[in-house]
Amino acid sequence: MNESQIASSVHVKDVIRERRTIKKFKQEAVPVEKITELLDTAVWAPNHKLREPWRFLLFTGEGRQKLAEAVSNEMGEDNKFVNAVLTNPTTLLVVMKEDPRQAIWDEDFAATSALIQNFMLAAWGEEIGTFWVTKPFLYGPKFRETLNIVPGEKILGMIYVGYPDVVPKPQERTAAADKLTVFE
Fold it and tell me: Residue 123 and which of 44, 62, 117, 183 are 20 to 30 A apart at CA?
């Protein structure tokens, strides 16, 4: 490992510790090219046999109306989530192809979750905030149908993406040593 790799490793630790969930964004949308660049970094997540079981749906600008329509179709027009997808500048859905074999499903779920974390960390490293949302409507048949999410696919998350307007203070974490069992 050379000096620049060591410096990068220190930077990764900092990004991991400093990342925050952002719930209030500026209205300026992150350019699609930047999100594509971040996804190109995120796809380096470990995934067994390079199955790459993911695909992405990105809603920005007027495209947010399609996502709002999907939410409305599932939950009705009068709900806070329609407003959230219309006021957040950009929303990304991460969709995983589901394998019927449990072991492969588990591996793909872990890989896709790692991809989401990679995306969020890469974004934070570029001063872009994220908020990983998992809500019941993501499972709803009307929501899925509106967005052409087919049987055999799972939405792992809806990720709000944007430039932070408010960055919350860090919350304490339990030290790993408090949850670690060592066998020597």
Answer: 62
